[in-house]
Please model this.
Amino acid sequence: MTDENATKPETAEADVKGLTRAQIRRMKRFDNPWQNPKLIWGLSMLLGIIALGVVGRMLWDTDMVFTGSGIPRQGPVGVENLRGQVGTWAHPLGTDVTGKDILALLIVGAPNSLYVGMLASLIGMSIGIFLGFSAGFIRGRLDDVIRVGSDVMITIPPLLILVVFQAAYGDISLTVMAILIACFVWQSPTRLIRAQVLSMRESGYVQMARLSGASTWHIMFREMLPNLVPYLFGSFIANVTTSIVTAVGLEVLGLGPQRVPTLGRVIYDAINSGALIQNLWWWWGIPTLLLAVMFIGLLLVNLGLDEVSNPRLRRL
Amino acid sequence: MTVLDLRNVSIDFPTSKGVVHAVTDVSLSVGKGRRVGFIGESGSGKTTTALSAMRMLASPGFVAGGEILLNSLEKPNLLDLSDDDMRQVRLSRISYIPQGAMNSLNPVMRIAHQIWDGIVAHEGALPQGDLQSRSDAALAGVGLDPEVVGDLYPHELSGGMKQRVCIAIGVCLNPDLIIADEPTSALDVITQRHVMQTLRDVQSEIGAGLILIGHDMGLMAQSVDEIAVLKKGQLVEFGPVRQIIERPEHPYTKELISSVPLVGGKSFLEPAGEETATGFRSENGEPLLELRQVSKHYGAVTALHPMNFTLDGEVPKIISIVGQSGSGKSTLGSLMLGFNAPSTGEVRFKGRDINRQSGAEALSFRKEVQAVFQDPYACFNPFYRVNHALKYPFERFGLSEGPDHTQTAMVEACRAVGLAPETVLGRYPHQLSGGQRQRLIVARALMLSPKLLIADEPVSMVDASLRATILKNIHDLKDRHGISILYITHDLATAFHVSDYVMVLYKGHIVEAGPPKDVIGDPEHAYTQLLIASIPWPDLDRDWGSSKDARQGLEALDRLDGHETIMRGNIPGFELVQG
Model:
């Protein structure tokens, strides 16, 4: 018994004659979607920030985040401040108005900001997956409740509520802040997953799975969820960005954790102590730069994942 | 005098796997007032060739060589025109009638305005009155009432009317050439005949050349003067329609012609030589499947009127349910699978109501009633290798005696449907062709050896040359494995060959039922007669009728309300009771 169709492609065959080796290499890279330059760049930027936290703790004295660790208002290496003092290697990125070492603040603060974003997003996604699947698959009254609930939540500006809450509550830990933010980032994954599940539950392979006697649990998590992974990743990354923006927003208003250095907190202190008027640019400029790196990294990862999951966006 | 000449045209698509030569060295001419059919399977380059004349190739494709001459231009080579000049040529000299009319019209514009759009783009602003009379004339030309249809929005029209609006837009500037890309593939046969005849009429009225792209040899035979057969981007045969149909030279052309099943023609099923498998007798003497007063409403719409029939599985049989889209045939299929609950009545399998079963009963019902669906592309989860679709139910139903046994069963099932196991197993769905996937789904059904198989349009999305093979696989399930089959289809010709009993469904009623040689070979009900008359035959001496016939047929259908089933005889083991 032979299968005459097995090896016969439906269209004319491709030929690789007359192409340079560089072109073929580009094509190979195109074949493996994970070798996406945007994804690789974005991930290395994020890993760079994590590395700053990990390697920094090993090589640098993080106790210098405390007041009076050095001479106040010192510039980075080789930079002269308003008093004519030139920055030294003792504080490579300078110090703030109370003598805290900026490098130490960044080593501790940058991973903290990323941690808040990741944790909030993770919690939000978990809620979103659960609610989205329930609404899309079970339908009925539950769907109405979840849909209306998430639609209403989308219209409420999170910062407003968080400001009120934190102002009343005072000092909080990073984790509590992440949980608070998570309460405002589950709506869009819920809507996204619900919409995907709704279209997927009528698809051929879900029908096939039902024919195969699969349980609801199997259909939801073994048949549907794997196909949602690209969407989930994309949504997760977008949520991390939103969460970090919210967290930094709160911190810059002075409402974040009071005792733990974060990037937002450093910027708040800088603004509050007149860093702009004293031309202490390293104090607010370097943390802002780090935040920018973080956001660009997240954006690139998101774009890269988009291209991985949607080959049409890829270009040769 | 030719309108369009293609000279040694080659089209390339650079892709990640290298350059695909989608079209290689194609030369042909379209004469004034002539109709040329491009026929070939999906991926054969027929649409690409035609679109190159519009210079509308999908990115990254490009014309790698040759000339495309539109002879009414001063400088005829289309490839030398600037983009702006080419824009002027589109619609006014060459117009394009797309495949899916439902997606081609702007949903927020009235029909008349959409016709004006094209006129204004080519002739500048015109007075309202002129535009109105032009669009009225265009709509009247395709048999639509301009007073009514011109003011409607696309969603208010039926599929056939939308396609005729697309034709009206295509011809409103009297082009030299019309390219129609499978204009009727989304329509049922009755509407297809009407739309094709409309297209033929307006085309001969304005004297334009016509390129008709399609894959149905019967439709081509009834519609065109010359046929170009394409395969893998090469023109394998080109000539007058009579020559191609009656004396095809290339083996591929012969294959295309022979793959069209004919009512009453030679059967494409080889007679089952061996003794046929015996069916199944239920323990308690209850019939395999029984429908009692089953009906289904969706809101105010009745998809299915009360229906009663009994199928005992003792001698396996293929029962065909034939009808057009909207006839309720797929609703019936999903009721029998238990995916939907009926609005009234009950569906009983081995004497038990399938919508009132315990968990264990439901699982054994699933094991015994399987299905093959229409769309082979959607039936596999893209995340898993194709083995998953075969392995999972086999293990889930407790048929497997271990991984080795599962593997052997999969290999055997693949061989039984004519697939080489090593070329399909372990691959991802997107690496297989539609035909291979559909055969794998048949293999899956075979592995589970159900008592009843519901085949819902199993071949309508598969290339013509593979249809016969897949139907033969399904037929084998009955002959060799004793599985009773409900074959749901819109295609009367295949139903004629495959089935033991045919039910014709129209607007949720069974209008005619009986053995296929009576119902399809010699129909009595007006609807069945119209269906048979509308099939395009790949036989030039059998006339399709004029557009007047088609319109009369459609009007007669509107007046019809058949609640009575015309019974054309019975077969043992299946009983249909007048609803």
